[in-house]
Amino acid sequence: MLSKKQARTFFLGGTVVTFLIFIGLTIYSFSKEQDQSNYENITEQVVRGKQLWEANNCMGCHTILGEGAYYAPELTKVIDRRGKGYIKAVLTTPNAWAPNGRKMVAYGFSDEEAEDLIAFFDWIDDIDLNGFDTVVSPLAKDKTNN
Amino acid sequence: MKYRSQKVAYWFFALSMLLLVLQLAYGFIMGFARVGLDGLHDFIPFNTARAVHTNLLVVWLLSGFMGAAYYIIPEEAQRELVNVKLAYVQLISLALVGVAAIIGYHFNWWEGRKFLEIPRQLDYLVVVNVLLFLGLILVTLFKGKRRTTTALVLSMGLLFAALLYLPGMLPFDSQVMDSFFRWWVVHLWVEGVWELIMGGILSFLLIKLTGVDREVIEKWLYVIVGLTFLSGVLGTGHHYYYIGVNKIWLIVGGIFSALEPLAFLAMALFAVNMYRKGEKRHPNKLALFWTLGAAIVSFLGAGLLGFAHTLPQTNLYTHGTLVTAMHGHLAFWGAYAMIVLAIISYSMPNMTGRKLYLSARGRAAFWLSNIGMIGMTVAFGVAGVAQVYLERKFKMEFMQVQNEISIHFVVLLICAAVLTFGIALYIIDFIKHGKPTDQALEPSTIQ
């Protein structure tokens, strides 16, 4: 029968081994050859867009890369689906609005800020998502099928 | 209660109750918004309500864990807490940081990163607060007459939880890396080190309530937390399938997260078996209800419902849908909310001397809150599955789908009302216990 000492060894040993593997896999997945996060295409404009995304807690309603709050649409591949003109209009309007009945805060971003956010979405769209993009965007699916 | 300083736990529990009430209120704001009743939108838009709702959950659970530690550690270490005044300073500073963060969310002051919305300036205060807490707990343990496995596991959980807060403070330009390391905090907390805290509290309660030999309980505690880490650390990979990192995580995350329910199953079997084995019949049946309930419901919510969408083939469709909300609600409720409510139910009569555990109100609180939460989980689940099919399979527009599934949020609100009624009864019980008193000290310890 298992002794308390053996149980403790199982706990400590298992934890150390799995954590080391975890660190190793983390290093592996961000190594240059394996990286698929589109890191090399991050520009200053994309970073500004990300900062706006965070400063306004867009993730508190929307999802991006499938992460967020499920109250408003997924924004991965949103440029494919809606086009830049529509997105810019949404971001810059100062008027309260409710697309299909659900209210969105009217942020009234400047032209430049809207462009920053669009650059951020554009950058997101070129990340290799292991197939998730084909699920959230009908257009991406068509592209894959062709 | 055996030591005077254990009374400090009461105030942490009281803070927990207050924040729980607020959490429920913000949950209702979101629920009503989802059925179109969004009159508060101009003052409390959905993203504010959501950040407040989830952060209040984290803070009331942490306050509950801290209270549990202040109650358990002196008893396990067999000495008074090293400094009670500092414990009160820690309590007040925790409350102030929490309140500042929540008020800030109403004025667009946040980081906008799911679950880690607390602004960077306040992050540093959180770190100082937690260091103070850990200092008090660890020094008490170090100076204590004995160091039990239960106390060590609980303290290790609290220490690692503090350390794992740090990766969440690293700044990244890439959304992918941001997300990747955010899960180091969130996943490794809730599916890792928080389970050590839960295991430590569970072990303490089982020792007290069942009378089973400490050696037996603590041996199995090691096995359970061992299983937790063995599956949970690499199980983090289930958050990495579709966020822009290597496909290796589909395999690693898939295999190890599929093993995660085993740890919760072991925990449930452990608790039920210890109860059956125990010859002691502790009169505080209510604490036993919450203790066994936590072990069983965490298996359902965190184990089974987590497994339901953890395989990459399923998660491809469920990732970023209400299916996650289904799992999240029952998992947090079973694993963490119920264990905090269990330690409160156990310790309140000991701290106040009022033995209210025979009241029908306490039992009604247990059943109503559980039935309400299970109902909410079913409502989220039906809405989530419908969303997956309509939006992801049939490619319907997001809002068209939301309108189709809004009826499930009416059901959600009704079930949330049942949950709230249960929690209200629990809080009435809490208040009726009154304040902790030295008169409740066990005779053997009064000098």
The CATH homologous superfamily of chain B is called Cytochrome c oxidase-like, subunit I domain
**What is the helix tally of chain A?**
7
Percent of residues of chain A in beta strands? Answer: under 5%
Provide the CATH top-level class of chain B. Answer: Mainly Alpha
Distance, first to last CA of chain B: 14 Å
Q: Which class of the largest domain in chain A in CATH terms?
A: Mainly Alpha
Structural class of the secondary structure composition of chain A? mainly alpha
Total number of domains of chain B: 1
Q: What is the total tally of β strands of chain B?
A: 0
> What can be said about the biggest beta sheet of chain A?
2 strands, antiparallel
Tally the beta strands of chain A.
Answer: 2
Compact description:
The complex is a heterodimer of chains A (146) and B (447). Chain A has 146 residues and is mainly α. Chain A has helices spanning 4-30, 44-55, 78-82, 84-92, 111-125, 132-136, 138-145; strands spanning 63-64, 67-68.
Verbal overview:
The complex is a heterodimer of chains A (146) and B (447). Chain A is mainly alpha-helical. Chain A folds into two domains: 1-32; 42-138, Cytochrome c-like domain (Cytochrome Bc1 Complex, Chain D, domain 2, Orthogonal Bundle). Chain A has helices spanning 4-30, 44-55, 78-82, 84-92, 111-125, 132-136, 138-145; strands at 63-64, 67-68. In chain A, a hairpin with a 2-residue loop joins strand 1 and strand 2. In chain A, helix 2 (44-55) packs across helix 5 and helix 4 crosses helix 5 (111-125). Chain A starts with a helix and ends with a helix. Chain B has 447 residues and is an all-alpha fold. Chain B has a single domain, classed as Cytochrome c oxidase-like, subunit I domain (Cytochrome C Oxidase, Chain A, Up-down Bundle), CATH 1.20.210. In chain B, helix 4 (120-143) runs antiparallel to helix 5 (149-163), helix 5 packs antiparallel against helix 6 and helix 6 runs antiparallel to helix 9 (285-308). The longest helix of chain B is centred in the middle third of the chain and has 36 residues, at 175-210. Chain B is globular. Chain B starts with 7 loop residues before the first helix and ends in a 15-residue tail after the last helix. The chains are: A mainly alpha (146), B mainly alpha (447).
